[in-house]
Amino acid sequence: MIIAVVTFQLPRPWTLADASRVFRSTAPKYLDKPGLVRKHYWISEAGDRAGGIYLWRSKDDAQACYTSGWREMVTEKYGVPPHVDYLHIPVTVDNLKHVIEAD
Predict the structure, then answer these.
(1) 3-class SS of residue 30
(2) What is the DSSP string of 74-89?
(3) What is the CB neighbour count within 10 angstroms for residue 82?
(4) What is the C-alpha separation between 13 and 26, in angstroms, rounded?
């Protein structure tokens, strides 16, 4: 598994209500996305940065999502291009299952 953190600097600060409204409009696009386990939308406390935290089965699955078309859509919707960071997950603490998992 891999985590991808997508970040974009907003052209103007958003409120939490702004973020919720916009993110609810795009969330359905990610239902049943191949390889996507979970996505969390986020916004900074200052409202100047936003993005998504994605848990993918593989980096290939993530990269299949983050196409040039996806980047164009994000840039058009939010007014700025996204930045994507890929993060390995060597150890996970899952308090719902009460387990520690290691790759």
Answers:
(1) helix
(2) HHHHHSS--EEEEEE-
(3) 19
(4) 19
How far is 95 from 73, CA to CA, in rounded Å? 36
Sequence ranges of the domains in the chain: 2-102
- Residue pair 15/48 in contact (Cβ under 8 Å)? The answer is no
What's this model's pTM, rounded to 2 decimal places? 0.90
**Cα(14)–Cα(100) distance, rounded to whole angstroms?**
36
- The 3-state DSSP composition of the chain as helix, strand, coil percent (nearest 5) reads 30, 35, 30
Collapsed DSSP state (helix, strand, coil) of residue 97: coil
The answer to whether domain 2-102 has CATH 3.30.1330.130 is no
- State the residue for tokens 């387990």: 99
**pLDDT tens for each residue of 48-101:** 999 999 999 999 999 999 999 999 999 998 889 999 999 999 999 999 999 999
Angstrom distance (rounded) from CA 41 to CA 27? 9
- Cβ-based neighbours of 75, under 8 Å, separated by 6 or more: 81, 82
